[in-house]
Every structure is written in C-alpha cells, then in structure tokens.
Amino acid sequence: xxxxxxxxxxxxxxGSWTCTKASILTVAxxxxxxxxxxxxxxPGELLGTYDLAAYLERVCARDDHxxx
Length: 68
Description:
Elements: E1 9-11, E2 17-19, E3 23-27, E4 31-35, E5 40-41, H1 52-60
Antiparallel strand pairs: 1-2, 2-5, 3-4
C-alpha cells in the first residue's frame, strides 16, 4: 500500500475512515480486497488480516485535508 491511498479515503471524527473512490488493496499472501466508495473501516477492524484504519491513521492522518 502506498500514501496514494490517502487520496481514496476521508478521515471521520470518530477515527474511522470512509472510502471516497474505489480501491483495490493487496494484503497478506497477495489477497486482493476491493473497497467501494462509501465503505467505512474502523480502528481494529481487520480486512483479511490487515488493520487498514491503523495504516491510514499512521500514514494519512497527518495530512490536513483528511481531518474530519
């Protein structure tokens, strides 16, 4: 996953992240996961075995445009 993913998600005030444009993520063992616009991921919620919200928080939350 790359920081470009930050452009596909918006941070919500409760710490969750909402997808704003379709994204295909490749996680553990090359498993592809499609995230659709409007889908929300929450801290601690795993996609496969990956905590996407934690990644977004670590990589993207520092960007002012993602604060919500």
